[in-house]
Design brief:
The protein has about 325 residues and is mainly alpha-helical. Helix content is about 70%, strand content about 5%. It is built from twelve helices and two strands. The longest helix has about 35 residues. The radius of gyration is 32 Å and the shape is elongated. The N and C termini lie far apart (about 70 Å).
Length: about 325
Amino acid sequence: MKLIELYIQEVTRRLPERQREDIGLELRSTIEDMLPDDPQEEEVKAVLSELGHPAKLASGFLDKPMHLIGPRFFDVYVSLLKLIIPIAMIFSFLAVTFSHVFSYNGEGEVISSLLSIIGDATWNSLGAGMQTFFWITVTFAILERYDTSNKTNPITSKWKEWTPEDLKDVPYIPKEKAITKVELFGSLIWTAIWVAGYFNANNLLGIYEKGEEGLTLVTPLFNQSQLISFWPLVMLVIFLELGLVAYKWKLGQWTTKLALANAVVHMGSLAVFILVFSNTTVFNPAFFDYFQERFGFTHQLNLVFWFAVLIFLVSSVSDIYQGIKKGRR
């Protein structure tokens, strides 16, 4: 009989104080009805095993769920976490990176400054992810406890109970055509990096010399005022790339139209790259004078430009080919 007392105690201790006595009596009566007269220990164990875990039985007596997020909302909850947390983290990362890069005036050691930017951006990104997780979880926990429908069937993203009709809205995406979120976030981060570098190039790119404060920029590579004069074309490329990312996000898979749009964006970006950097006025003459004085040559630096164009072209052709290949599958 000691097992019965312990079992009732384990059930009722999980209940509100005002319910314990009544539910304890009800549970004892139920157990005794299930047992024969003068029961043996093995028979008691069998009955308790049939009643199940005390925590599960106690949850059946409660008006409120014992779990934080129950099965009715869990699928929607996880879906929102997967959607919103990466967006919050990436935008936080980009905002901090932009803020630091545009406010950077070239003072201080460049390596330390870059590590500081990456560290701050990563830390703020993690903070944004944790904040988002916390508030989404709190929202769903409150929602679950104030749900008066008394239904237990899981709901879909449309906040309705699932029916076979919902399958018609689910796109079938073969694995080989799918566009991953990592790919999209990688594109956004790459766009943020080159945009920040372009609009603050005179403080980031050039000749560095080691001094008392570490590596410092002594001769910028670019003439920033001339570089900025091409801003309408650069902004056009930015909007095209962001639009392409949004289009990929919407489709979720490669199609022939997406492959064509991807090719147009790549060719447009390459054309702007050649137009901007083939203009010698965007480069700082002092940069070339430095090489002439120190090493006695400057013309070889033109090869760097054409090498960069070649890398850009090969990378673009490879990406366009992969897009067309995936779009036709």
